[in-house]
Write a structure and sequence with these properties.
Layout: E1 3-6, E2 22-23, H1 62-73, H2 79-84, H3 90-96, H4 101-114, E3 128-135, H5 136-141, H6 144-149, H7 153-157, E4 166-173, E5 180-189, E6 192-195, H8 200-203
Helix pairs in contact: 3-4
């Protein structure tokens, strides 16, 4: 199901809190392994370990995902800081991947996070959000939005994804547009939001 979110200039966020983001030409059936505009910004990650603390209420639902991503479209958003807050904690890998997939993911993403190379960014005028979700089970069966909206790489590596986890793909777009900055791999695990962009690149 496609979710379209209209955002005011100032957004009150409630809840929880790509390695190669791409500017898509289509929303459906796109393999994000074919980038058309790189949006990978290198910047200092600062305090990259962020998690929902004991006093922080985390909303793991679709509404929580929309609220979280809305922060990236707010006027004056610090995209590097917001992205750094999504840095996986060590135990987040085993919460999203199974078997040796957790170790492969940790090895594949760690350096990029440490260098501040994974930065989600909404471009100028991109004030709306397109959002899709699929569970690990749907990605394995390759049905619904998993088949229609997720890159084909997810089907290849679904066996490494932990059952019961919901994965999100999304775009920051201009009003009335379907082309924009596209990202994938957002999940809520261990009571916090984190992101594993293009997991097939580290799991193959």
């Amino acid at each position: 199901m496609k979710i379209l979110l209209l955002l005011p200039a100032a957004l009150l966020i409630v809840g929880c809190g790509e390695n190669n983001a791409v500017e898509d030409t289509e929303t459906g059936g796109v393999d994000a392994g074919q980038p058309e505009q790189a949006a990978l910004n290198s910047s200092s990650s600062g305090d990259s370990q962020a998690s929902g603390g004991p006093s922080e209420k985390v909303d793991p639902s679709e509404a929580g995902a929309k609220a979280l991503l809305g922060e990236f479209m707010a006027a004056g958003a610090d995209h590097a800081e917001l992205s750094a807050a999504l840095t996986p904690n060590p135990d987040d890998y085993s919460a999203a991947f199974i078997g040796d997939g957790a170790d492969k993911a940790a090895a594949g993403y760690q350096q990029a996070w440490e260098k501040g190379q994974i930065v989600l960014k909404a471009g100028a005028g991109q004030t709306e959000l397109l959002l899709w979700k699929a569970t690990t089970e749907e990605l394995t069966a390759w049905t619904g939005d998993a088949r229609d909206q997720f890159p084909g790489g997810y089907r290849e590596v679904a066996k490494h994804l932990k059952p019961g986890v919901t994965w999100y793909r999304f775009k920051f777009v201009e009003p009335d547009k379907t082309v924009g900055m596209a990202y994938d791999g957002l999940v809520c695990v261990n009571g916090r939001w984190t992101i594993f962009p293009k997991p097939w690149r580290v799991l193959r």
